[in-house]
Amino acid sequence: MADRTEVVRVDRLVKDFRPGFGVRRKRVLHGISFGVRRGEIFGFVGPNGAGKTTTLKVLMGLIRPSAGSATILGHDVRETEFRRHVGFLPENPYFYDHLSGREILSFYARLCGVRGSERARRVNTLLRWVGLSSAADARLRTYSKGMQQRVGIAQALVHDPDVVFLDEPMSGLDPIGRKEIRDLILRLRAEGKTVFMNTHILSDVEMVCDRVAIIVNGRIRYEGAIEEFLQTGDRDTDIVLSGLPVDAATLLEESVAAQLRGLGERIEVRVSEKAVRDVLRIAMEAGAEVVSLTPHRVSLESIFLSAVEGDAG
Amino acid sequence: MKSLTCIWAIAANTVRESIRNKILYALLFFAILMIGAGVVLGSLSYVESQRILQDVGLGAIRLFGVAIAIFVGIHLIHREVDRRTIYTILSKPISRAEFLVGKYVGLTLTIWMQMAIMIAAFAGVSLLTGAPLAWQHGAFFLLAGAELALVVAIATFFSSFTTPLLAAFFTTGTWVIGHLTRDLRDIGARSDSQAMETITTLAHRVFPDLAGLNLASEAAHLLPITREDITLPLVYATGYVTVVLIAAVFLFERRDFR
Fold first, then answer.
1. What ipTM was assigned to the predicted interfaces of this complex?
2. Is B241 a member of any domain?
3. What is the three-state SS of chain A?
4. Pick from B16, B88, B256: which is nearest to A98 by CB?
5. Model-level pTM?
6. Cβ contact (<8 Å) for B87 and A90?
7. Domain span at residue B113?
8. Which residues of chain B from 237 to 256 reach within 8 Å of chain A, CB to CB?
9. Fold of A6-231
10. Residue B229: inside a domain, yes or no?
């Protein structure tokens, strides 16, 4: 499980780009701050153009911050040596297509300082993990998009890093491939690794992430545990009752502001979570029978959309 | 040690990638064709057919060598950025300097391999026609190899911060000026204008002195060549390449890969 130690720390990070040769600058990141704890799967979520990939590129040393700081495992992201403990899968990765899957993994392992027999062993293990053993010696130009994505994940893990950054890891994968990658991410967490996942597929975030940060227009709108996140706001509950007398139904509408809807012999009552106890008491006292009780889970999508719309407003 | 491993890994991959470039083989084909055409051109002369044959051959090796160096060199960094292969490489424990030097070494080795094929064709044609092969030819090839390494460094420098088209323009321009700066400096020294002398002297110092790396006449006419004629230009070329690569790394370190 995740401990409280932060392995990634971003503090008041600012990034300005200069479009063209002019002196005007466009601010893409407005002093964002967040932290990723050891052993957790962290979802970095936001709409297109929010600054997700820019943030990731700053963390990977591909872009220099204009202000603020970013550290991974306590090292400034502009250093290089600590990267032997870091893996990175870019969005829509592309590799040297004159090499085979085995050769490209061996190439990356060599860059990471993985030596001789250990290199061959890691490459074979990773090819098996991502399901590419049978295509290991085929040239990458013959690989499908999904297979390229798997190579991308394998190269991110070939040196057995402690922290893995994945930019849209499910991109280009079919449902089976997505499940395999989800399982792989969960397996990484089980092995004690920290995973930073940049994605817009909210169902994947809900399924695998421990904590999330939502970025909108270069500003962090939320950071926290996903369970806390989903419990924010006043949730509704649907209660289906049978045999509810008319006067009790009226009482429900007037006293707890319940919304009633007829379902044949039954009545569906929608109330806020806080009023559930009162509804049940009134219904039971009136001799009604409770058929079902369904709390509405607030979806990540609805909260995400409200965050984005709130920003737009 | 770790740096050398990284540089060599990048260099070896660059060689593997570059030798798959079909246009490179087209240029090589025309270079060999021109070396062979020296036989025809030489036969037009009654007295110096072998010298003309070798003049054409040596000229072809230099010109096509430079053309290959510029053509492949200008795409050196741009292709990595354009195809986003640079993202995964620079996220590994490798510095931008190691990456750039590795690309440079790989490309220089590729160019030298191409040059070796052209030299083999030149030697073959010379042997078939009975033209002499002397150590002066070896000295010419050595300095021509140094010139190509210098051109690749200049192409790497421009490739590190601009587009392939501009890099081709600037590299070709630098190569042309590099062959003229010695003459320009001499003209400036004879000029009455102090400003002209300063400008031509400055140009000679800033641009590479490529005329010093050209032993074509000595090789074609089998003229005497001193040890200093070889060592001093080699030291100069090594120093110039080092300075150009340091400047390229300086610019490359500051570049954002968006």
1. 0.84
2. yes
3. CCCCCEEEEEEEEEEEECCCCCCCCEEEEEEEEEEEECCCEEEEECCCCCCHHHHHHHHCCCCCCCEEEEEECCEECCCCHHHHHEEEECCCCCCCCCCEHHHHHHHHHHHCCCCHHHHHHHHHHHHHHCCCHHHCCCEHHHCCHHHHHHHHHHHHHCCCCCEEEEECCCCCCCHHHHHHHHHHHHHHHHCCCEEEEEECCHHHHHHHCCEEEEEECCEEEEEEEHHHHHHCCCCEEEEEEECCCHHHHHHHHHHCCCEEEEECCEEEEEEEHHHHHHHHHHHHHCCCEEEEEEECCCCHHHHHHHHHHHHHC
4. B16
5. 0.84
6. yes
7. 2-253
8. 254, 256
9. Rossmann fold (3.40.50)
10. yes
Position B95 in a domain: yes
Nearest to B88 among A17, A93, A110 (CB): A93
- Total of domains in chain B: 1
Write down the residue that tokens 């490179």 correspond to.
B24
Spans of all domains in chain A: 6-231, 236-295
Q: pLDDT per position in chain B (258 positions), as tens?
A: 678 889 999 999 999 988 887 888 888 888 888 888 877 777 777 667 778 888 888 999 999 999 999 988 888 788 888 888 999 999 999 999 999 999 999 999 999 999 999 999 999 988 988 888 889 999 999 999 999 999 999 999 999 888 899 999 999 999 999 999 888 888 888 888 888 888 988 888 899 999 889 888 888 888 889 999 999 999 999 999 999 999 999 999 988 888
Query: Dihedral sign, CA of B231, B12, A157, A32?
Result: positive
Within a domain: B258: no
CA distance B2 to chain A (A): 7
Looking at domain A236-295, its CATH class is alpha beta
Displacement of CA B139 from its chain's centroid (Å): 15
* d(C-alpha A269, C-alpha A241), whole Å: 8
Q: What is the chain A residue with the closest CA to B15?
A: A98
